[in-house]
Amino acid sequence: MESTETTKTPVITLSDAALKEVKRLLNVQGITEGGLRVGVKGGGCSGLSYTVNFDDKIGQYDTVHEIDGIKVIVDAKSAIYLQGTQLDFQKDLMGGSFKFVNPNAEKSCGCGESFSA
Q1: Does pTM top 0.70 for this prediction?
Q2: Element (H, E) at 87
Q3: Which residues of 80-112 are buried (b: 16+ CB within 10 A; e: fewer)?
Q4: SS3 for 15?
């Protein structure tokens, strides 16, 4: 029995800029299956770090929410830390990067890629 679920309330949301960039990257890389996997792993200068990649496998304990045609996949462990988070994309002179706006983070490092909860 599968316990993968598609939720009505997303664990994580994407800003318009992040959504546009994810769609651009999917198109450039020719990815038509799967979706955007967002997660948390141990490490980084604040204890936990964010992960973002494309994945065509949806696991038994993953939560999937579709946002404007993009499947956003979050594993059960990461969902605890990411609930209510928004993924944003910010362009600068050096290119651009994804930024996490996480209400659960008690502190974040200067690079914005790790946090503690």
Answers
A1: yes
A2: strand 85-92
A3: ebbeebbbbbeeeeeeeebbbebeebeebeeeb
A4: coil
Give pLDDT tens digits for 6-34: 546 789 999 999 999 999 999 999 888 88
Taking the alpha carbons at both ends of the chain, their separation in whole angstroms is 32
| Topology adopted by domain 5-105 | Hypothetical Protein Aq_1857; Chain: A; (2.60.300)
If pLDDT is split at 50, 70 and 90, which confidence band does 109 have? low
Residue count of the chain, please give it: 117
State how far the alpha carbon of 22 is from the alpha carbons of 44, 94, 110, 113, in Å.
24, 18, 24, 18
Alpha helix ranges (H) inside 12-84: 16-29, 76-82
Q: What mean pLDDT comes out for the span 101-112? A: 67
Provide the residue type at 66 as one letter: E
Asked whether residue 39 carries a pLDDT value surpassing 90, the answer given is yes
Coil/strand/helix, residue 27:
helix
- Kindly report the number of other CB atoms within 10 A of residue 51's CB atom: 13
For the chain, the domains span 5-105
